[in-house]
Write a structure and sequence with these properties.
The chain is of the alpha/beta class. It contains 11 helices and 7 strands.
């Protein structure tokens, strides 16, 4: 867990790297946003708990608590700064998720925010006396800021296929460099066997369908970006495509941007295609900033109208 605060951030980024990300890798991911004038909250799934399919609730609580701290600092600096353009502006929250290590944490954060959205400060396990005098940040406020921001899914969510799920065997893992069509079903069977063994050992047979369903029906953020590759042997591009089609059909209010590559391994798009990858981030940040500015103008007009009638 780490928090990096910048003065008057354009956004607050929640960075959830892949399982086993090293401190050097995490620092690199943090710098992507810090260099773009964003405060950053970063957290990696605890390896033991992830591997054992144990609850990630404690880590989710800490992420939310650190996010509150970053929001308080951003709001306090903006309201006290002389160059503030609007005291009603809400700094947007953007979420950058990598692989299922990050997606499992994102799932947990969403569940906690929605479950406790009516309880101001619920889940804030790191509140201190110093925080007491600062602006209060409720879960509803955090959810509002996430709606202004975006969720970027890098190489995730990864579909967890169980061995008894025989649907679309021959279409899974459409690796463009496999010359023999038999490679696809053979690899799919091998991957399914290992995933089934994992869920069996951890007594979590329900976990794959539960996780995928939540990824399908999540409406926490209306702006979603999916970056994935057909060469990925950990995240099945076929099922990612199925997920996007289902979400587009059932939730047309969600704006989904899809960026598919044909030559990158798992979580490698930023290395293989840096110009396009960071262009995606820059464009998404600019759009989130514009939404926050537009929302603040509406709040300013409303405040002025109330003042004039008093």
């Amino acid at each position: 867990m780490s928090v990096h605060i910048v003065q008057s951030p354009r956004a607050i980024a929640v960075v959830l790297p892949h399982l086993g990300a090293t401190s050097t890798q995490v620092e690199t991911y943090i710098e992507w946003y810090r260099s773009r004038n964003c405060s950053v909250v970063a957290a990696v799934s605890p390896p033991r708990r992830f591997i054992c399919n144990a609850s990630l609730q404690d880590t989710g609580h800490h992420i939310i608590a650190d996010l509150r701290r970053a929001i308080r600092d951003a709001d306090t600096n903006r309201q006290s700064g002389e160059d503030a353009t609007s005291r009603h502006r809400r700094t947007p929250v953007v979420m950058h998720t990598m692989s299922n290590g990050g997606a499992f944490l994102l799932e947990q954060v969403e569940l906690l925010l929605q479950k406790e959205s009516q309880s101001t400060g619920a889940g804030d396990v790191s509140a201190t006396e110093e925080d007491a005098g600062r602006l209060n940040v409720s879960n509803d406020d955090i959810l509002d800021r996430i709606r202004l921001g975006y969720q970027l899914f890098d190489s995730c969510p990864c579909y967890i296929r169980m061995i008894w799920n025989t649907k679309d065997w021959t279409q899974s893992f459409p690796h463009p460099n496999w010359s023999l069509r038999a490679f696809q079903p053979l690899y799919t069977v091998a991957a399914s066997l290992s995933l089934t063994a994992w869920c069996t050992v951890t007594f979590a047979w329900h976990r794959p369908s539960q996780f995928w369903k939540r990824m399908e029906v999540s409406t926490v953020c209306p702006h979603a970006i999916y970056v994935y590759s057909s060469c990925d042997l950990l995240s099945d591009a076929f099922w990612t495509r199925q997920l996007l089609q289902k979400r587009r059909e059932e939730f047309p209010q969600i704006q989904i941007a899809e960026h598919r590559f044909e030559d990158s391994d798992h979580c490698r798009m930023h290395r293989d295609h840096p110009d396009e990858y960071f262009g995606i981030i820059d464009g998404a940040l600019a759009a989130a900033t514009q939404r926050a500015n537009d929302a603040s103008k509406g709040a300013d007009v409303g405040a002025s109208a109330r003042t004039s009638t008093e």
